[in-house]
Amino acid sequence: MFTRKLLWLAALAMIAALAVAIGSIGMQSEPWRLEPDDAQVVALGRQVYEARCASCHGVRLEGQPNWRRPGPDGLLPAPPHDASGHTWHHPDELLFRITKLGVARAANLQNHASAMPAFEGVLSDAEIVASLSWIKSQWPASVRARHDELNARARAAP
Predict the structure, then answer these.
(1) Which of 11, 98, 141, 156 could form a disulfide with 106 if both were Cys (CB 3.0 to 4.6 A apart)?
(2) What is each CA distance from 43 to 36, 46, 133, 141, in whole angstroms?
(3) Are 69 and 23 in a shared domain?
(4) Gap between the Cα atoms of 68 and 75, Å rounded
């Protein structure tokens, strides 16, 4: 009887350990998930944004003038990252990929020229997530909620 209970407890412990392991694998499979409510991540993100992004996207996330029309060089100016822009229209994963890989690689676009540099090899994944998290932390609650809904739909898609 005692051995049976011990085996049962051991089986439960193994199931619990497996559940924790599967949960942590799931967390690792989304390294792009933004953390706008994590004060440390947001603080790092502000530093990264100021050093690497603000020169084009603006100190107040305002972007460059006429960002919807190509400039004289044929490239689109940097869009705003505030609520007036379209950043929040894209799920976390795409924002991460655009920042890391550049627009053309992230969106699988052939022959697409962009002024947006790829930050792969320049910023770590954590720094990319932090900068995007800081951007998101600046959005109004209603925009953040809509972005959260967009992310939920993106995760649920096959």
Answers:
(1) 98
(2) 10, 5, 9, 19
(3) no
(4) 10
- If you average pLDDT over every residue of the chain, what do you get? 86
| 3-class state of residue 107 by DSSP | coil
Give tens-digit pLDDT for 43-52: 999 999 999 9
Q: Are 56 and 131 in contact (CB under 8 A)?
A: no
Residues 47, 131, 133: CA angle, nearest 5 degrees? 125
**φ, ψ of residue 59 in degrees (nearest 5):** -60, -35
* Number of Cβ within a 10 Å radius of residue 146: 15
> Which contacts qualify for 69-77: CB closer than 8 Å, 24 or more apart?
73/115, 74/113, 75/113, 75/114, 75/115, 76/114, 76/115, 77/115
pTM value > 0.85: no
Task: Supply the range of the domain harboring residue 113.
Answer: 32-156
Same domain (yes/no): 24, 36: no
Give the span between the Cα atoms of 85 and 76, in whole angstroms: 13
**Most distant CA pair in the chain: distance in Å?**
83
Instruction: Please tell me whether residues 13 and 88 are part of one structural domain.
Output: no
| 132 membership: H or E segment, kind and range | helix 125-137
Q: Say which CATH number the domain at 52 has.
A: 1.10.760.10
